[in-house]
Amino acid sequence: MNKKVLYPLLLLAAGLGLAVMVGSNKVEVDSQATGRLAPTVRVMQARVHEEYLTIGSQGTVQPRSQSELIPEVSGRVNWMSQSLVSGGAFREGDILLRIDDADYQTLVQRSEAALQRSEVEYDHAAEELERLASLHKRQLASQQQLDNARRAARVAQANLLEARASLEQARRDLARTELRAPFDGLVRNEHVDIGQFVTRGQSIGAIYATDYVEVRLPISADQLRYLGLPISTRGQIPEAQRPPVTISTDFGDARFIWEGELMRLEAEIDERSRMIYGVTRLRQDESDQAPILPVGMFVQAEIRGQRARGVIRLPRSAMRDNNQVLVVDDEQRLRFRQVSLLRLEHDDILVREGLSDGEWVCISPLQTVVDGMHVTPVQE
Fold first, then answer.
1. What is the CA radius of gyration of the chain?
2. Of 3, 33, 278, 362, whose CA is between 20 and 30 Å from 251?
């Protein structure tokens, strides 16, 4: 036979024989029915507890009191304190500036002389009135003379009162040539120098107190209920109702904390931000471990509100549509549960009603959920 025909036939026969041999020796495989796999979900146990409702805010440190340095008399500056520079520190009662007082000392002397003259004239007028009154009783002086003496005595008394007032005014003006600090504080700025002539009412600098500082904190209107304050609260908050405030900021790699109180609420709601501004006050004590808060620093604040009782805190991922959560029952099946929320926070939710202590809540973000679906819970 032709080799071109013989070789293909031999290969075909060998292949058929191998196929028959494999088919006759196949391994028997036991078939088993497979069940549907339950999805694995993360669960968290609900725990009923009590906690304070807090409000986060931020603000800038401001002085509790600041004022302009304004002399009450005019004159040339002949002395300035070393503290009267930008950033200079001073104590209450320290002399910050002196104005040349020569003219005011002269005015005091002239007022004292005028007072002595008025006293002499008054004494003379009083004695003359007493003498004429005695003569009038003995009918040795006319009624006109007595009236003139009374008028002269009253004029002398008025002159005496005016002289005393002028002397007091002159002494006050002399004392005002020394500009004293009204409180412990720092100098914000100054624009005066020795030899400069200053006039009464002219601003020569600005100072602020350092015994207390204040922080203006924005608070949304709906958050006031967490503080236990009605929306109508304005001005000073009663001492018994003042919420505690914790102020914190970072200095390098260290965090410092100050404790204060929310002292008052401002009268208006900001039209742009729709916020109510509360003011907290912090005492600046150099003996504390925390440093003195510099004016102008940006700080974080946490305002502690009312105590919430019987609430359950869950991560926000546990929340479903229409205020529902998924509860895993004893049969490891998912059940929808309607809950009542007390507060919706950035990362958590506070549940007021609808859950019991010890129940397991699904916190996995499932795409498709069917009530009664079987799951494999994994404790968070």
1. 46
2. 278
Q: Model pTM?
A: 0.69
Q: Which amino acid is present at 57? A: S
Three-state SS letters, 204-254: CEEEEECCEEEEEEEEEHHHHHHHCCCCCCCEECCHHHCCEEEEEEEECCE
**Would you give the distance in Å from CA 21 to the centre of its chain?**
91
- Nearest alpha carbon to residue 67 among 185, 235, 197: 185
What are the structure tokens assigned to 103, written together?
């003219």
Nearest Cα residue to 98 out of 17, 185, 32, 195: 195
Tallying the residues shown for the chain, one arrives at 380
For the beta carbon of residue 281, count every other beta carbon within 10 angstroms: 16
- DSSP secondary structure, 133-153, as one string: HHHHHTT-S-HHHHHHHHHHH
SS3 readout for 337-365: EECEEEEECCCEEEEEECCCCCCEEECCC
pLDDT digits (tens, 9 = 90+) for 249-274: 888 788 888 998 999 888 788 788 88
